[in-house]
Amino acid sequence: MTNIELEKLAQKYINDVNRVCKMMLQAFNLTSKEELIKYRSSGEFYSNGGDNRYAFHGRGCRFSNNELEIDWDFGYGDNWCGLDPWKLFYYIENNKFVHDFSDGYQIKEIFDDFVVNGKMVQKYDLYYINVEM
Known about the structure:
Layout: H1 3-27, H2 33-39, E1 43-47, E2 52-57, E3 60-64, E4 69-73, H3 85-94, H4 104-116, E5 120-123, E6 126-129
Antiparallel strand pairs: 1-2, 2-3, 3-4, 5-6
């Protein structure tokens, strides 16, 4: 898999998280990330007649329904998520994307190269595409 293909999958992951977060705001009648962070507690919540499952954990959330399974950590500032190489790997695996990664370590190595080349920035253990910190 090329770095460009990984960038596209990373952007798709971010887009999916953004879409799911907007669905959450609507489902729970909230207006912002800040409200959601205050609203959430550990545990599971359902919407859309029980089809959408949200399980909050530590600093993130896991979402699943018949079409998508995704886990993320809430991101820095206005970002709904940062990129965790292992969570991205599980997203790629669980959603049946074609790839040749064996684990998150390979993705982390590429992300570290992206940081060196200025394509990404790293804040703590999460990576961000084209975001100024």
